[in-house]
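Request:
Um, any thoughts?
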Amino acid sequence: MSVTVIVTPWLIIVRRLVNVAGIVGPTHHYGGLATGNVASYAHRYQTSYPRCAALQSLERMCVLDRLGVRQLIVPPLTIQAPFFSASAMWMANAATVISSQDTFDGRVHLIPANLQSHSHRQQECIPMSQLLQDVFSDEQYFKVCKPLTSPDEGSANHIILGEHHFEAHVFLGVYGGRQSKDAILNGYSDHIIDQDRVVVALQQPDAIAQGVFHNDVIAVGSAGLLVVHEGAYVDQQRVISSLAYCYESQYNEPLTVITVTHEQLTIAEAVNSYLFNSQLLYLDGRYVLIAPLAVQQSNSARLLVEGWVSDSACLIDAVEYVDLGQSMNNGGGPACLRLKLLLSEQEWGAISDRFYFDRQKYDFLKGYINQYYPEVLVIDQLKNEFFIAEMTQCVVGLYDWFGLNDLLALSRNA
């Protein structure tokens, strides 16, 4: 279990890792609309399997639950054209989250992503903002902010380090491709107290051209460890040196950096395997990697991970492989499927337990998905009015179960 402890003259505040996961919608499909996303383009118009996609995502939550990670779970968005776009399940793009120990007002700030780079994703911003406001409704502890005006893709372009220390965090923000520099700079300057703990980097254009459309396709970090490909950033030596300096200045200990070379893993294979889109968890002093099966199926990526785990000098202690084939076909690995927060007990308790992931919710959702989700979806079915009506009722049932009927009505009128 990941814990951050904040010490003040009066009290100790313990913060624990919380992941927010979205239920995959019943019309999960491959529209091939995501320019620059190699997997999305490669699988466009192919047959998809919504039931399998939702169950795979649910099983990933079970892995995290077994490891002791707290999770919140939310229903699929009610968006149209394309109906229930599969992309809304990638909660890493839902918002940028800044923990309460880092903000001006001592509240958790959530900045909904505007997703301006693609028209089919822009429509997610309003319903996602409404959903976040419902989940994080207690204004004593949370502030759901207005979206930024410059192109912003959410937490997929931010790495937060130092979650295992008493002090506030160190931030790496990356722009280029879909993410604008203004969104990175304004997101930090508007919300974070200390800009000395912020390093900003430009994604390497060559990496973007090969399918690195977000930073989480080429780098991953948590607590005191950063794993990054050598071809990730422009002027990468300066970026890593600046980040290491910030980290050591803040915590009085060195940042551990694992740099993956082109010889070890090409950028093309990094994109194909989604190694860097693994979740890197810091749990009770151990680092655990939650990796997609594609890593295990890639000789280069698998050898890297096996080397890390077997090397006593390396911080990564274990790897858990998860099958997310349906999401991976659309360009989303384990890290895409969650929004990462660090919450105190008071902040956690301020959230309705309707959204807490537990065994009871797992059992209900597994049964619901098996009963109402289509096993197979051919993209032309999205033109069928009867099919759309049936899938609408499927989502209505989920909102009813979560007690979100008012939010459903608001989304329909938006």
About this structure: The mean pLDDT is 91.
